[in-house]
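Work package 3, deliverable 3.1, input record:
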Amino acid sequence: QVQLVHSGAEVKKPGASVKVSCKGSGYTFSAHYMNWVRQAPGQGLEWMGWINPSSGDTLYAQKFHGRVTMTRETSISTVYMELSSLSSDDTAVYYCALSLRAAADAFDIWGQGTMVTVSS
Amino acid sequence: DIQMTQFPSSLSPSVGDRVNITCRASQTIYIYLNWYQGKPGKAPKLLISAASRLQNGVPSRFSGSGSGTDFTLSISSLQPEDFATFYCQQSYSPPYTFGQGTKLEMK
């Protein structure tokens, strides 16, 4: 079945960087843009950007410009999201998500998420 | 950026009640409006795409309507498992913004 599997939880110090991975299976990896969405504790959902796994093209939300880098490794059907200059405001669950069969590019497939904690 | 405003931010309905949640976009998004259900410790679940298309496996008590800037998620007869937070999202133009969420809490 279609699955997105995240790397494990991370604890980072302020100012550090974190790199989260998301491995896809059960579908044609290069055919669907991968989005990244985060959710801080007790807060709502925030779209961070997407990567086209076929071309490597990316589009980032302005808020994260200069701090986020999304990459992919097609040979192992994995995308990565690296966030730098971390602060406590970046403590959140980070999800990869894609639109596989849904209309209007809605995100019908989600990974289980990676908890990133930023603490001194 | 397109701003998405949901209301109410919280509700305390009873099992069996009909619930309506409204989402308003700051500019027209046609029918590029999606609804998700969020529960603690779980990834969000897509309920409705393109304003009114029910996802496979989602109970028919959920429905969506609207176009342009005003949208509604309705739950016809609330069940115990429906107590959760619901988010709208526009997928018309990046950044694909979400509403702030509507939390259904048990009385």
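The first strand of chain A starts at residue 3 and ends at 6.
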